[in-house]
Amino acid sequence: MIRKENLENIPALAENPIKNQIIEAFFDKRNQHGNEVGSFQEIGFEQFVMVMSHFRPPNLKTTKEEKQEMRKEKLRFLFNMHDTDGDGIITLQEYRKVVEELLSNSGAMDQDAAHEIADAAMLEVASTNVPQMSPEDHYEGITFQHFEQILKDLEMETRMFIRFLDVDTTTMHCGKATS
Amino acid sequence: MGRGGSVRFWIFGSMLLIGVWGQEPKSERHDEHGGGSNVSGISIVSLEWEYVEPPYLVALWILVCFLCKLVIEANHHVTEFIPESALLICSGFILGGMIWGADKVQTFRLTPYDFFHYFLPPIILDTGYSMPNKLFFTNLGGILIHAIIGTCWNAASLGLSLWGCQIGGAMGDLNVGLLQYLLFGSLIAAVDPVAVLAVFEQVHVNEVLFIMVFGESLLNDGVTVVLFNVFNAFVTLGGPRINAAEIIKGIISFFVVAFGGSLVGFVFGLLFALLSRCTKNIQIIEPGFLFILGYLAYLTAEMLSLSAILSIVFFGVCCQKYINANMDENSVRTMKCAVKVFANGAETMIFVFLGISAIDKSIWVWNTGFVLLTLLFILIYRFMGVFFLTWFMNLTRLVPIDYTDQVIMSYGGLRGAVAYGLAVMLDEAKIEEKKLMVSTTLIVVYFTVILQGVTMKPLVKWLKVKRAASAEKTLIEKVQNRAFEHILVAIEDISGQKGNNYLRNKWFKFEENWMSRILLRPSVRERQDKVFNVFHQLNLKDAMSYVVEGERRGSLEFIRNESAFVDFKKKFGEDMTMSMPDIMADMSDDRSAASSTRKESVPSVSLEVHEQAMRGTRAAEGLDSHHLLQQHLYKGRKQHRHRYSRSHFDINKDENEIQEIFQRTMKSRLESFKSGKMGVAPPKTITKHTRKEQQQKVRTAQTLTQQSVHPLEKDKIPRCLFFPNPTLHGKTLFQDFRCFTRFFRQVYNIQAVKKNLTFHFFWFQLQNKKSKSRLSGDEDFEFSEGDSASGYDTSFPVRGGYRPGAGIENPAFMPDVDLPLQIPPWLEDVDSVAPSQRAQVRLPWTPSNLRRLSPLRISTRSSDSFNLAEAPGDHQDDQLPPPPTPPPHRDGDVV
């Protein structure tokens, strides 16, 4: 069983600005391909592998549909990471927090700057997804559809992968199938 | 076509001219010289053709090549199907034919010396300088495998197969030994960067594929040079004397050549980066360093017989980041353009001359078997090599390269001028069949560049090769990418591995801590953030489109008429008046909350947000946006007074013009300033200063401009902002609009600090109104509302349909949202209140306000502390009638 403290104690993680989000992601029930919401106190090997499975690379045999599916999974993972309260919407506050932490170690920028950026990004999402928004409208936050939409050009296929030593990707696949 | 024809005719004419001149004057000159020595008279006009011949020919040729390109590019229907490089070669054929027709001998051809010393360096410098570093280094492993093993394989297999075919009798009687075949193989094995770039630039394949082919073509130069030299030496030595020691030497020399070349480039790159730290004062020639140092890196490597191409590539790769950050934005832009000019020009010349060189009877020796077999083997072995190596790489590659990409990679193995240059360099004394090799190389070059080049695009389409994704430009994508990197590193950490991402992270750390510290100017180190860059870009874009939109509607005034805001404005005004005491009371408690919301909803534009965000670290870019805006805003009468300066760009700006720009924009700026920042600055009524004091100041203003400026700010506050006396106005003021804008932004900066005082300001307004201290004398401002082209406070109505209180409040894109917030209806007469002392400083001179404003104009000294000191005071005695007395230290200045 792994607890949060265990992950937090990994020395190499200490410098990572979004360490908290990443650790949260491991304990997030939404990342277990189930429909549950909430978070674990501690996770077992299976859950650990489930989270890790988001990072498996495709191979030459992966079909287009599978690739699409994988992409969606990865996006969902990212989305969950942003959506901390689990209501299916990334609100401005949530997004700001992420951006703030992301930028927190590039010292020159203060919190305001991070906020500005988050706001600008948010507005971008809003304007892409709801082009005809009247001034009275209120954009609550990014839904998963919007998230998918705005990142549709982002090349995930070559990015969000980790090479796992000694772990055959097929076993990872089995891990998913069993659950 | 008619146009094309005429230009072509023109070229033909110029060609004839060269030919004729080349022949005739030579004979005439003899007479002239003979006569010249005898006759003491002065010949008024004499033809000094020989004196100018070499440079003249060079210049003419460059012109002709450029015109060829112009003709080719005139019609895009052609270049869509046939790559430019192929067309250039064809036009080379035509030109060569003309020369041949005129001279009966090919007087011009591409010599290896010219090629390697003048044409190649600029092209490679360009590739290195604009190399996508991250992509390049991510795929470095694959590139190296292809560049080293692939090239060796190509050379060896081609040489051996040809040799085998010769023994088999396929090529008739040729006097070529195995070593010479290998030499030929080595010179023709290398994929040519120039050709590859020319073709792949027009077929937008995905970036991984592109970098694989292109990187290979760049890096295999080291291999080619070594192979060529080694085999050349072997051929000289002769077969029997080659022993193991020589072969080992050859292998060692490979490492020396390749790594030595890279090292030379690296060292020069770092030198350049260091140098660029201190070139601030010679901005005008700053860009020249790139070319000179790059060329020196190239020549140094050449001198040490290292790989010159690798040297200049790594020069570009390693200095690009630092110099782009260190140098002024103008210089960077100049470099980027100039490097393209040189590279593109050189490329054009290379292809044209490749074509011209072909039209020469003396070089052609035809051997069907040799030529066809070479072509066949080149293609086959290229495919085999690529497929095998990629298969091997895919075993370990995270994201495998799929088959269609592999086909394109193989098919993209274009040979070019490098091979031709090497072939011409062969020693005819040692290799009897040199001519055959040269002509075969030419055939191969034509075949690959023209035929494969033409078919590349259809093939890419047919195979549905993944195309290049659109460049990431949205902010959210950048943010997301940043998140990716961290997530990947974190996951690797958690899983306890040290993979690529781990290494990359380590490298970034190292770079940040050491390289940047040494190589970057301290001032630019902070702005090394990509997210910020995108942010900045977006803002610029918005500002631009805003201006365009404004122009479309006739004026920028339309924002003011946005009806959406009006009722809100009124409402807010009412609320304000009604509940003012409460608000004031609440303020002290709610202070932090209120101020934070205020901060975000405060204004405005792009630039200002920046300021707030970056606190002036982006002075240059801010200036740039100013420049853009200014360009769009000002379309007035221009009275250019052309002057010349070798060291300044903007010398031709007419003072009148600048002043007009200033006056036209002043009003609106002031307005936005007031509306946006009013809250921050305690209002001053102008009447508070005694006339006596003012007169004094007017008198002493001239000297004060020098004295009263705080040392720290002295260089930042432009002289032009002072208005010592009316007669000076218009002559010496506003000499530099840029310095004005810089100054203006500083003011913004300072104001941004104190936004949370907005409410106090309103209170002041109220008091103001009550005490009837409003002034109406400023009506004679000569600005019309229509001219209120606000450079700063540009709202962006397309996007900015948000109001405070809606989900997001983004200052960057909805600047004017809070305009109504801060100008209650009773303040519509904006001239009644001067926004702040700083703003006052910039009021243009008019008869009515000069007198009153003059005292304030010199109060520029250390305004930060000045305003800050004032702020708390206002907070406490906000019941008092407004105008705070000028702080004491100001008086000290005055007297």
UniProtKB/TrEMBL annotation, chain B:
Q: What is its main location?
A: membrane
Q: Where is the Cation/H+ exchanger transmembrane domain?
A: 64-462
The secretion signal range is: none
Gene Ontology CC: one annotated term? recycling endosome membrane
Q: Which GO terms describe its biological process?
A: regulation of intracellular pH; sodium ion import across plasma membrane
Taxonomy, superkingdom: Eukaryota
Reactions the enzyme catalyzes? Na(+)(in) + H(+)(out) = Na(+)(out) + H(+)(in)
Renumbered to this chain, region (Disordered) spans 588-607, 675-708, 854-895
Q: Which GO terms describe its molecular function?
A: potassium:proton antiporter activity; sodium:proton antiporter activity
Q: Which residues cross the membrane?
A: 7-23, 55-72, 84-102, 143-164, 176-198, 218-239, 251-275, 295-317, 338-359, 371-395, 438-460
| Free-text function comment from the UniProt entry | Plasma membrane Na(+)/H(+) antiporter. Exchanges intracellular H(+) ions for extracellular Na(+) in 1:1 stoichiometry, playing a key role in salt and fluid absorption and pH homeostasis. Major apical Na(+)/H(+) exchanger in kidney and intestine playing an important role in renal and intestine Na(+) absorption and blood pressure regulation.
Q: Which NCBIfam families match?
A: b_cpa1
- Give the family this protein belongs to, as stated in its UniProt record: Belongs to the monovalent cation:proton antiporter 1 (CPA1) transporter (TC 2.A.36) family.
- Its name, as the record gives it, is Sodium/hydrogen exchanger
What species is this protein from? Nothobranchius furzeri
This protein's encoding gene: slc9a3
